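Q: I'm writing up a methods section and want to include an example of the input and output format. Could you take the sequence below and give the corresponding predicted structure tokens, formatted cleanly so I can copy it straight into the document?
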Amino acid sequence: MSIKKQIKTGDKSLYYWAVARISLGFIFFWAFLDKAFGLGFSTCRDAVSGAVETMCGKAWLAGGSPTEGFLQFGTKGPLAETFQAVAGNPVVDVLFIAGLGLIGLALILGIGIKVATISGSLLMLMMWSASLLPANNPILDEHIIYIIVLLGVLSANKNQKWGLGRAWTKQPLVKRLSILE
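A: Here is the clean output for your methods example:
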């Protein structure tokens, strides 16, 4: 269905995809902020008292590793040893933290959606495979659902709402390298 026909028939699906894109972007970007600064949600919160110490030693900018805890102690299944072997590796830490921040920002702004959705899907697939088999369902968990939604966002991107996508795709570099759309 064309975009003009969608508007005439009252189809609001592109707005729902925009909400999904921005919401997923916020999930990624918030994880970046929390792991980088230790805002007390999954990072820098005392497990017993619940007290938050912002910028504690677990925060990435305070010298902590955003990957070490999960990869060392949260992995299970056939690939656990592989993931545990890279826990706390500075290169893996930088790639992970940069990925969270850039994927989140791209999704929120509506720019670089091809790269953001593909890399976000790969990140989610790696996180899913790090804890095989999921606790509540042997196949599906939130990581797979995020992948499905990210691919939906990619498919709806040509007619994007509430983003800078149209202006972004007019940039000379983006015109030359369509992967940057």
